[in-house]
């Protein structure tokens, strides 16, 4: 029998937060009650037992069962993070394919644990690390992190055995992102070398046997879902315009269906913002015959404070006893399995998502709006049945569902440009890529292409070994072309400017490419949509002020090209003290610039680590822009197009017909251009282009412009002349000596 004192003591202990030694807040206990109702709580003991007995375990549970928020906390309670070396503490990592999920979930878990975000619980996404050095070194607290799968992969580059971590949780494994797939192979090796490390693979749906087979027959734990029935409706005829059809369906539900929130799946920021505006307008036109609504967008570049809005309750009735309000969430794929929103009763699924596709023959990777898989459609409808029976409206025919949709989404590794991945793997010391243990090995052609590109860039030597240059390049979280451009920019005396241009191009929104659909569902994007989506995000073009916006953009325009225009925007932003109202007046997106500025600072730090000089050519010098353009070419010499006599552009070597994207700032059609992006639509566009000179190709990248392996084309004949000209010049200087 315990003494009274002991009992009191443990009661008192239960009221003290072991992480910060403060008494728990009332909110902690409120949330705790809710947490205890989540399905994973019923299997907490079982989970911990299986984890104790095994090195690897696979956990499958319906979206919303509490995997992402609860499992890492269970692990934290049960696993000893102390090491024999008392100064070191280990951590728990939980990877998320999506940055929004990493941010949102870590914030939620910090709240559940009653601690401050960035201390005991942190997150880490590309260009943003919200975890504190203080805590990692702090002996009194454990630490756990949500991070994107890409970030964990980067950490492995400096810490190959991932020794900071005691338990690694790979979440959302069914998404099969490129980084997750590479981590699979890598962790299999690490587990052999680190018997103390544990791996938990979590997912909403899995081809369970395939995963078990791959992970040495690891045990599989299933968390039974709590799904209510969801009634599925299809359209009778294919929809011509899924956006318009989606909005119409929202309005109909709001007018005719009983209370319950609505979730609409669309493909990207522009489309979602547009839909939100239209929905709000159409419903407000209905007056007070319908209940109030709260329309909330959700996409990856949304600022965190706005992301939190999806968890707010629907608005109350306008007057007491009136019609209840409704929350309408308009989201990308994020809401499919990464984030669970309670209270959704109606789901609208147009059947599309932005997906990466890669064509190794022409080295083009694009984001295309393409039909989702049956598995995705199933997940989407499931979101309607979390709290009560629900309805899912599929904006395509049942026939389309049965005949046109693939069963599963293809793993990303099979539809990606692998140059970056190969560079990372080389840095990790994996030389034999062909025998690397990929769950689904990529096509040999794709691997060969990647090796070839890295060799042209000088990152790999002819034997495929990482060069000194390649080693530095691998430290930048950027595409190899861009890292190359940065690393060599001091040689062109313009690293300051190249840093700014890289940062402007790396703004997440600009990276997201194009908009086309491989439509088998019969629905076409609304007219004019291509145009809106394709405008780089730093320029704002509101519908009601398009002319003023275009004029504002023209004021930044540089006649030699879009890269230099971006540089002008960045300089003007800094000269105007980063003033948001200046941004507003000039139709520039303040958030995009702020984020570019942040990216720039991170790149500066990496440059400094390798003693890469920060320098500029004198602005009044004639070489100021010439040097910048040459430095860009040093990275992007494989992305060049030549103007043919017929008046159209052909990409060099690949001989693809392309057009300058209408958003370009050039006042002429240059003979040679470099481009940042190849946009596949009904026509092939090259976007973000800059005028360069043919002579520079010969000077900067003679190994690539080696005419002995060049297809016959106009560009080749021009280059031949340029080589002869260079020869002649050399001879002249020689004879003058
Ligand atoms: P799973 O990973 O199994 O899909 P989660 O752990 O993400 O499930 O979600 C468990 C519960 O936590 C859900 O009911 C979800 O709505 C809730 N939740 C998650 N994040 C938040 C948040 N930021 N605010 C409020 N509730 C949240
Ligand atoms: Mg989850």
From TrEMBL:
GO terms for biological process: mRNA processing; RNA splicing. It comes from the Eukaryota. Residues 48-224 form the Helicase ATP-binding domain. It is an enzyme of class 3 (hydrolase). Residues 249-429 form the Helicase C-terminal domain. SUPFAM superfamilies: P-loop containing nucleoside triphosphate hydrolases. One of its GO terms (molecular function) is RNA helicase activity. Keywords: ATP-binding, Helicase, Hydrolase, mRNA processing, mRNA splicing, Nucleotide-binding. It catalyses: ATP + H2O = ADP + phosphate + H(+). Its EC number is 3.6.4.13. This is RNA helicase.
């Amino acid at each position: 029998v315990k003494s009274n004192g002991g009992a009191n003591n443990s009661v008192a202990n239960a009221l003290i937060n072991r992480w910060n030694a403060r008494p728990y807040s009332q909110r902690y206990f409120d949330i705790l009650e809710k947490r205890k109702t989540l399905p994973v709580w019923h299997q907490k003991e079982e989970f911990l037992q299986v984890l104790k007995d095994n090195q690897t375990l696979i956990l499958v549970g319906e979206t919303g069962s509490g995997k992402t928020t609860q499992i890492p906390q269970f692990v934290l309670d049960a696993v000893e993070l102390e090491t024999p070396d008392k100064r070191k503490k280990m951590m728990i990592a939980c990877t998320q394919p999506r940055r929004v999920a990493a941010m949102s979930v870590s914030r939620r878990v910090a709240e559940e644990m009653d601690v401050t975000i960035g201390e005991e619980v942190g997150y880490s996404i590309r260009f943003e690390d919200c975890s504190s050095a203080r805590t990692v070194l702090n002996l009194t607290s454990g630490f756990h992190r949500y991070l994107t799968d890409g970030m964990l992969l980067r950490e492995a580059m400096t810490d190959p055995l991932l020794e900071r971590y005691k338990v690694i949780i790979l979440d959302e494994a069914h998404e099969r992102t490129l980084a997750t797939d590479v981590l699979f192979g890598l962790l299999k090796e690490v587990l052999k070398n680190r018997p103390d490390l544990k791996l938990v693979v979590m997912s909403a749906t899995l081809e369970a046997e395939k995963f078990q087979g791959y992970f040495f027959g690891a045990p599989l734990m299933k968390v039974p879902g709590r799904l209510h029935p969801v009634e599925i409706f299809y359209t009778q005829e294919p929809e011509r315009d899924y956006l318009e059809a989606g909005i119409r369906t929202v309005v109909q539900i709001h007018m005719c269906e009983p209370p319950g929130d609505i979730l609409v799946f669309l493909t990207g920021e522009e489309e979602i913002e547009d839909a939100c505006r239209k929905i709000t307008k159409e419903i407000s036109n209905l007056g007070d015959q319908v209940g109030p609504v709260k329309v909330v967008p959700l996409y990856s570049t949304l600022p965190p404070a706005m992301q939190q809005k999806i968890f707010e309750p629907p608005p109350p009735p306008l007057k007491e006893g009136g019609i209840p309000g409704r929350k309408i969430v308009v989201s990308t794929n994020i809401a499919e399995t990464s984030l669970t929103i309670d209270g959704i009763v109606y789901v609208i699924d147009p059947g599309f998502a932005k997906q990466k596709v890669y064509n190794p023959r022409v080295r083009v990777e694009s984001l295309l709006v393409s039909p989702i898989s049956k598995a995705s459609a199933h997940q989407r409808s499931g979101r309607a049945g979390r709290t009560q029976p629900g309805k899912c409206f599929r904006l395509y025919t049942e026939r389309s569902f049965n005949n046109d949709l693939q069963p599963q989404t293809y793993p990303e590794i099979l539809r990606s440009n692998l140059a970056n991945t190969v560079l990372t793997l080389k840095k990790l010391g994996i030389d034999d890529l062909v025998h690397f243990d990929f769950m689904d090995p990529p096509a040999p052609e794709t691997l060969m292409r990647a090796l070839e590109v890295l060799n042209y860039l000088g990152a790999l030597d002819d034997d495929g070994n990482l060069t000194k240059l390649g080693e530095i390049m691998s430290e930048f979280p950027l595409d190899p072309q861009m890292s190359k451009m940065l690393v060599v920019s001091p040689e062109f005396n313009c690293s300051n400017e190249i840093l700014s241009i890289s940062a402007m191009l790396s703004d997440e929104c600009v990276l997201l490419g194009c908009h086309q659909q491989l439509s088998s569902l019969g629905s076409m994007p609304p007219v004019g949509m291509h145009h809106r989506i394709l405008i780089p995000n730093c320029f704002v073009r509101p519908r009601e002020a398009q002319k003023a916006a275009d004029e504002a953009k023209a004021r930044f325009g540089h006649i030699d090209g879009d890269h230099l225009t971006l540089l002008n925007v960045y300089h003007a932003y800094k000269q105007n003290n980063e003033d948001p109202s200046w941004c507003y007046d000039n139709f520039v997106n303040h958030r995009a610039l702020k984020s570019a500025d942040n990216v720039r600072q991170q790149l500066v730090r990496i440059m400094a680590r390798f003693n890469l000089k920060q320098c500029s050519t004198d602005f009044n010098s004639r070489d100021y822009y010439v040097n910048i353009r040459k430095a860009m070419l040093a990275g992007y010499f494989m992305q060049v197009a030549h103007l043919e006599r017929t008046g159209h552009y052909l990409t060099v070597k690949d001989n693809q017909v392309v057009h300058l994207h209408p958003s370009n700032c050039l006042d002429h059609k240059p003979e040679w251009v470099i481009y940042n992006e190849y946009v596949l639509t009904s026509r092939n566009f090259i976007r973000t282009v800059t005028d360069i000179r043919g002579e520079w190709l010969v000077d900067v990248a003679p190994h690539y412009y080696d005419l002995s392996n060049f297809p016959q084309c106009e560009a080749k004949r021009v280059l031949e002349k340029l080589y002869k000209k260079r020869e002649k010049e050399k001879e002249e200087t020689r004879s003058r000596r």
